[in-house]
Amino acid sequence: MDAVPALSNGQDQRVLLEARGLDQRWADTAIAITDNETPNYEQITNGWPRSNPKGYGKWFRERVVVAVERRRRAGGVYADVESMPTYKIKTPLQSAIMILKRHRDMMFVGRGDERPISIILTTLAAHAYNGELTVGTALVAILARMDHFIQFVDGRYVIPNPTDPLENFADKWEAHPERAEAFFEWLLHAREQFTQAARLSLRQQITEVVASGVGRPVAERARDRSFGLAAPALLTEGIVRNVAEAQETPVRLEGGGRNA
Predict the structure, then answer these.
(1) What is the pLDDT confidence band of residue 148, given thresholds at 50, 70 and 90?
(2) Of the candidates 23, 42, 55, 245, which lies 20 to 30 Å from 11 by C-alpha distance?
(3) Contact 220/227 with Cβ under 8 angstroms?
(4) Which residues have a Cβ under 8 Å from the Cβ of 37 and sit 6 or more positions away?
């Protein structure tokens, strides 16, 4: 566990966001954190890096509730959503993120410095998620759209913290361009692999393809439990079309704004 010293920074954050006309909803949970690589590490100054982990957690739960609400309206297993704490519910979004992180880990064995960091995968996946009700269709939406939420501004990549737009989760990409290359390399590989799995009709064939990306134990558990990856109908419904459409668009975004 990493424990980073921090100070509450809600008031200063609110003033800063207000001055720039940005969303202030999450300002109260903002913090200023230490960074031992900065020259003012031993002094409390306004130059400390900012973050907002509590605000980010609330934002992510809002994205999770999209699926919970859809299940409730559909009369699914989450119908009694009001009586169940959100943290006890594992939605397709959370399961899809776990699968994609596992796929990343398998791909970057021996390349730990280049491996896309989890906060980037989680943020882009949560943005791309649109309340899909199965793990398979959630993977479709996420892989097809997650790079749409990467900005390219003044020659650098920007992935804003949704609860603090002044914090850039891709701030290390400018000094380490190989990390940006690694992310797009991973994204293309994941699209290709899951598209290949979607084209297969036999459960064991799907398992074999997916196992090379996420590991055999995970793929076999998915096959046995039939929770999205294993069921051909769930994967094939729209995945080839959606991912193919996404691949027709250049992966690197050269525009300034966020594409929805």
Answers:
(1) very high
(2) 42
(3) no
(4) none
Q: What is the reported pTM?
A: 0.72
Q: How far is CA 257 from the centre of its chain?
A: 19
* pLDDT tens for each residue of 174-218: 999 999 999 999 999 999 888 777 666 445 445 555 555 556 666
Instruction: Kindly tell me the burial class for residue 260, based on how many C-beta atoms sit within 10 Å of its own C-beta (0-12, 13-18, 19 or more).
Output: exposed
What does the pLDDT look like over 14-69, one tens digit per residue?
Answer: 888 888 777 788 888 888 887 777 777 677 767 677 788 888 998 998 888 776 67
